[in-house]
Write a structure and sequence with these properties.
This protein has about 290 residues and is an alpha/beta fold. About 60% of the residues lie in helices and about 5% in strands.
């Protein structure tokens, strides 16, 4: 059963989306909610017998709202967060492209998802989930809140027209290295069709750089052009050497722990083994332990 508190948080998140996008219809399309249902949610605050449990869970997941006793995780202004946020702002404002290749587990995805939620005309795509050209195009179309259910050619043409018509669109391609070759070529085609009208920002771990370098060296069609379109360089945030990275990550963990009310930062460093992904787990364990002791 989904608690009323979770439902109210979902409604508040939907209300914020309406403020960001400036139109209720866009929110309906983006999150697959009928206009009449969204009106009842936002205007009347109804929570009972209006959405299925599965839909509530789906929306809570998209807005990263914890169910049950899950912890509400606060975001810290880490070096990774600030750098990527500035990069995304620049790409969106000037309709340019960039590619970030850096270590895993430094906060890239977390930052990109928040940026997409809090800014108008920004779409976040997890490339690991769009393994065909159709899924790739339809996912972008749905992210912008336009119809993604028609014939593929029509969806693609509508998407290109829409991107070229709106103000400062940005498409974030996370896990860019997970795309099959055929989808990279579709990406290049879409980039060409929206040149000077859309910003693109691709992200991945160190394997992304190795993959693209290998494909360029093998002279696989399209990859030299893709690299050129993404700025002809791989950007990074963290120090290359392990000792420098350890100090970098240690500082990030301290910042995250502090904003989330962790008193013993040294213990957090040790218990998370310097992994950002383990921080919410560790904080959750500690809070449950505190509840037991009380």
């Amino acid at each position: 059963m989904i608690s009323k508190d979770v439902k109210l948080k979902v409604i508040e998140a939907l209300r914020k989306q309406e403020e960001i996008h400036g139109t209720r219809i866009k929110v309906c399309s983006k999150f697959d909610i009928s206009p009449s249902v969204l009106t009842r949610l936002l205007n009347d605050g109804e929570t009972d017998n209006i959405l299925s449990a599965g839909k509530w869970i789906n929306l809570a997941r998209k807005f990263e709202i914890p169910l049950g006793n899950g912890i509400e995780f606060k975001t810290a202004q880490t070096a990774t967060f600030k750098h990527i946020w500035q990069q995304l702002d620049f790409a969106r404002q000037y309709s340019v492209s960039g590619m970030l290749c850096d270590r895993a587990d430094i906060g890239k995805t977390h930052t990109a998802k928040i940026y997409a939620r809090e800014n108008k005309n920004v779409v976040y795509i997890d490339c690991g989930r769009v393994k065909t050209t159709q899924r790739f195009i339809r996912a972008i179309a749905k992210g912008f809140g336009i119809d993604d259910t028609g014939r593929f050619y029509q969806v693609r043409e509508d998407l290109i027209y829409y991107i070229n018509s709106i103000e400062s669109p940005l498409i974030i391609l996370d896990e860019f290295g997970d795309l099959p070759t055929s989808v990279y070529l579709e990406f290049k085609s879409l980039w060409n069709a929206t040149d000077h009208h859309c910003g693109w920002y691709a992200m991945g771990a160190d394997g992304l750089r190795a993959k693209i370098d290998k494909l360029i060296a093998r002279k696989v069609v399209g990859f030299a052009e893709i690299f050129s379109r993404m700025g002809n360089k791989y950007q990074r945030i963290t120090p290359i050497d392990d000792s420098g990275f350890k100090a970098f990550q240690k500082k990030q963990i301290a910042q995250i722990g502090k904003v989330n009310g962790v008193a013993d930062i040294q213990a957090l460093h040790a218990k998370t083994d310097m992994s950002l992904r383990r921080i919410p787990i560790q904080i959750g364990l500690e809070r449950k332990q505190e509840e037991v002791e009380q």
